Amino acid sequence: MNYPNGKRSTKQSHAPKGKIKPDFSNRGMSLEEDINVTNQYYLEAGIAVVHKKPTPVQIVNVDYPKRSAAVIKEAYFKQASTTDFNGVYRGKYIDFEAKETKNKTSFPLSNVHQHQIDHMKAIEKHGGISFLILCFSPLEEVYLLPSSGLFLYWDDQWNGGRKSIPYAFVEKEGIQIPFHFQARVDYATALDKLYF
Amino acid sequence: MNYPNGKRSTKQSHAPKGKIKPDFSNRGMSLEEDINVTNQYYLEAGIAVVHKKPTPVQIVNVDYPKRSAAVIKEAYFKQASTTDFNGVYRGKYIDFEAKETKNKTSFPLSNVHQHQIDHMKAIEKHGGISFLILCFSPLEEVYLLPSSGLFLYWDDQWNGGRKSIPYAFVEKEGIQIPFHFQARVDYATALDKLYF
């Protein structure tokens, strides 16, 4: 599926009737912003409750001026110990990380960290649903890849395996997520196909 | 259950054998810290995966000095749109807020905000488990109260009802959480009694 004229094909769209037309006004939005918009839509439409976790920050110094809000004067970014998004969908715990790559042929594993893998494995062990949302930006294609597919390549890289997940694997084992007007990254529909 | 000598009774403890003795060295810890310690223990023992969400912060100005970490120079606290803790336990999505009160006879509803209630109701609607962990600090008693009990008093307060949840109600409808050495706030055991 290519977009030679810069427009998305709606051929494979799973958008509900009357909502086929994609919104081109905000195409500059990041994957994360698109997911936030999707989550807001899911919440309002009663589809799922999923939130992005706030960026973890180590606060060192706070100023409390009279008659106005506290100002954080010194703080540092901390490494997150989990993935970025989690919540509940159809009674199930879901947990995912969203990643973009400028690569067309593979997703480099350097985009993921060991502590995220540990977290995702723990989630799966406890009966949650863990996955990646992968965006191949040059192709304008977004996929949901179950974390089991990620683990396969992640673990294999230490045994002399490749350092990336081939695009062909993602296309075969993942579910493509079409762009919708409201559910810009409609991962819930992809989850339906895989898990429900 | 009173602690006239400043020590906790271990009579009703559900601690595993050999782990009966509470650790008095960190009695100054807050409820939140005790829950964080518990979550770490649950994670390592393979019992549950639950994390506290980072405090949401609106970052306004960041300095990127050469050869050292980025410093946040101006930021503001934002109101959280969800509860503080969520995760997966025995395949279920769980979601809770932890609150302390210095009150002995009731838990004031002013400790909870409407957006948290909205969030908790959404969680329940989607099949998640939502609850409060309430600490009556003068009594040194901690309870797990299912959010349905909170909703009862929350909704009733707008119809001329009282502005607090009586201690007697929490004691009757909630599950008391004894203090353990590792699982300081052993809410998983309380969940077992209520939901599994």
UniProtKB/TrEMBL annotation, chains A, B:
Binds 1 Mg(2+) ion per subunit. GO terms for biological process: chromosome segregation; DNA recombination; DNA repair. Keywords: Cytoplasm, DNA damage, DNA recombination, DNA repair, Endonuclease, Hydrolase, Magnesium, Metal-binding, Nuclease. SUPFAM superfamilies: Restriction endonuclease-like (SSF52980). Residues 1-26 are annotated as: Disordered. The record marks 99 as: Transition state stabilizer. GO terms for cellular component: cytoplasm. Pfam families: RecU (PF03838). This is Holliday junction resolvase RecU. Its EC number is 3.1.21.10. InterPro entries: Resolv_RecU (IPR004612), Restrct_endonuc-II-like (IPR011335), tRNA_endonuc-like_dom_sf (IPR011856). Residues 8-19 have a biased composition (Basic residues). The keyword Membrane does not apply. Endonuclease that resolves Holliday junction intermediates in genetic recombination. Cleaves mobile four-strand junctions by introducing symmetrical nicks in paired strands. Promotes annealing of linear ssDNA with homologous dsDNA. Required for DNA repair, homologous recombination and chromosome segregation. The lineage of its organism: Bacteria, Bacillati, Bacillota, Bacilli, Bacillales. It is found in: Cytoplasm. HAMAP family: RecU. It is an enzyme of class 3 (hydrolase). It catalyses: Endonucleolytic cleavage at a junction such as a reciprocal single-stranded crossover between two homologous DNA duplexes (Holliday junction). The keyword DNA repair applies. One of its GO terms (molecular function) is nucleic acid binding. Mg(2+) binds at residues 82, 84, 97, 116. Belongs to the RecU family. Its cofactor is Mg(2+).
